[in-house]
Amino acid sequence: MPVALARPTRTVALTAALALGLAACGSSDSSNSSSTSNGSSASTSGAAAQATGPVTVKDAQGRSVKVAANPGKVVVLDWSVARSLTQLGVPIAALPKASGELPADMAALKSVKTVGTLFEPDYEAIAELEPDLIIIGGRSGNAKVLKEMTKISPNVIDMSVREDDATKHLSAVSDQYKTLASIWGKSSQADTHLASMNKAIGDVRTKATNAGGTTMFVQVSGSKVGAYGPGSRFGTVWTDFGFKPVNAPLKSDGGHGDEINQEFFLKYNPSRVLVLDRSRTIGESAKPALDVLNSGLVNKTDAAKNKKISTVDGFSWYLATDTPLSYIAAANDLAKVL
Prior knowledge:
This protein has helices at about 15-20, 45-50, 80-90, 125-130, 145-150, 170-185, 185-210, 235-240, 260-270, 280, 290-295, 300-305, 315-320, 325-335; strands spanning about 35, 55-60, 65, 75, 95, 115, 135, 155-160, 215-220, 225-230, 260, 270-275, 310.
């Protein structure tokens, strides 16, 4: 019996969620992550949101950087930030080379100049652009890259979302998004987009609570399978979306998960399984994730019997996790197994 996929009729289309983002209005809680000030916090200051003057950004490396309002030539070295700025309608002058396909909402970025990779930026090419603002974050958000970028321009900010408390991570994402929006005077749009994100999450959380059962999240990389639990890089499944985890001794931190075998699935017998195909996400040639999981033991689980095993959008879950559209895509993925 082959691994059974979730039924597509249960999928909440991401395009519909994007449309919702243009109609809703709202805000989100604050946190201790990146914040903005122009006399006060960007999340509370109307003056900062208008971007009529310089905006002081406290970035993820603890620096306070005064950023001129509405910078024109922007280099972005983080996919979460790139997706956020694209949603806000902010032009991007240069990006890292994509390792896989970009989602439809970022299709226009395919023609944008590339300047190295997330791990190895092309500093010479960036310098030649004479950017007004350089934004690093995530995989490029480290002291080494920051040091090199400040040799090119003093206008560099690290917009990584770093929050050790999993219950506060979503709030930190919201604050980072508001910070970015305030630089270009787009706080109103940000509130609308965040309201759409929160609604999508809330809708799935309600259904997940009522559905019961347990949920497992696994990442397949080549032939290796790793399982993740609450507190891990994919902890949003349980913390924000309200699913119940399997009763397994999984790591509560770290980015690599626990390597598991096929017996693990049968032992903990999840009601549903979400699968991230890492190889496909980063453009590697490998056996498809569902084929790797297609075994007699996995197929004996409740998840397989009830067609509740489904792949997720790798770009949103692995490359650009900290932005509203990726949370909406995550909600779409999770709805498929409810």
